Structures
1.
Amino acid sequence: MKIVALIKQVPDTYSERKLSDSDQTLDREGTEAVIDEINERAVEAALLLKEAHDDSEVVVVSMGPDRATDAIRKALSMGADSAVHLSDEALHGSCAVQTAKALSKAIGTVDGWNLIVAGEQASDGQIGAVPAMIADVLGVPSLTHVVELEVSGSTVTAKRETDDGVTRLSAELPAVVSIGEKANEPRYPSFKGIMAAKKKPVSTLDLAGAGIDPSEVGLAHALTSVTSAAPKPPKQAGEKVTDEGDGGAKIAEYLVGQKLI
Ligand SMILES: Cc1cc2nc3c(=O)[nH]c(=O)nc-3n(C[C@H](O)[C@H](O)[C@H](O)COP(=O)(O)OP(=O)(O)OC[C@H]3O[C@@H](n4cnc5c(N)ncnc54)[C@H](O)[C@@H]3O)c2cc1C
């Protein structure tokens, strides 16, 4: 089985995330960049499948600037076998639809893939749609919010967990699976893994190498764009009701005033 793990390098949650003043895209230069935590979970899910199935292989695919190689190396040091890095200045500012189309092209360079494992939502863009869009572009099933994953023969089965409950899903391969936050804890790379990762093959593709038309990507052709951004206003202090024997009536009065009862 050949499993593609989609990983994105994102600004560290501990560093300040801001948009550049010039084009309102994420200012990646001024922040610490790391592999997205949910993508470590996706790589872990792929590695568990690889360990459960002989002759399996995990190929990491990432679209991002040159420095995304650090995130790719982290996935390789966890145990992935090889990587495809789609990197081209022209991709800057691509929207979710363009990202999904471009990643689909990069995935197309991986011969004989059966399963794509992604995170359900990136912690920077938070669009939460790229895996389903890739499934649509490639014409394969999409299994979302997955917390457990198994493959038997040509069938993938998954436990899907949302706020509403737990669902069991199955689909025929090839398919796309997006991993939820509660999925398997990612392993730490071992020293041996870190050393081995340095020698694993990483194929770097530009637009031409991936067969992407420049008019299909980038800020100038994006279907959506961020027009402005501002920090959330701080929460207002709540109203305090002091109970002087009439607390219940005061609360009822307040709720009526808010048209809540
Ligand atoms: C502050 C901000 C606002 C933005 N607003 C918008 C907007 O309103 N509309 C819009 O279309 N775009 C927007 N973008 C762009 C967006 O971040 C991405 O470039 C792209 O649209 C994918 O969205 P996402 O990463 O949130 O994807 P999600 O769908 O949240 O990502 C889910 C999973 O898909 C995979 N994946 C996503 N991107 C990559 C990648 N580059 N390489 C490998 N795997 C990947 C990962 O496995 C990831 O866990 C915004 C970006 C920022 C930083």
2.
Amino acid sequence: MSAFEKYEAMVLSCIDPRFQDLVHKENAKKGLTNKYSAFTIAGASIGVVAPTFKKWHQTFWENLDISVQLHNIKKVIVINHRDCGGAVAAYGQEKFANKEAETETHKSALIEFKKQLKIKHPELEAELYLMDLDGSVISFN
Ligand SMILES: [Zn+2]
């Protein structure tokens, strides 16, 4: 057994300070404490797929390659969040005019992320979530 077989996932989440502890708690609930590698970037999946942040995309995918090699991960857990400044910077305020629009915008970016992941790493599963300010999550799996 490799030293890294116990690692299970990469968690992709946003840089927003309000969500660091909430994301950690959500992963702890899944039994993932000390079992995931973290990649934190403005907008979470939006930082990886939005044209506004084009310069960041390759960095994420190369970092994921390394995580696969080093940590034997099986999946990428993506946690976007509501009231995200990075998301607004990428797509404009009108895409977040109300809660339904916000949900749809995040859902599109999460599904686009999953699509790109399937091309680059078909062996990896994706779990897609949108987290609220109280830590509750909705799933797009
Ligand atoms: Zn954010």
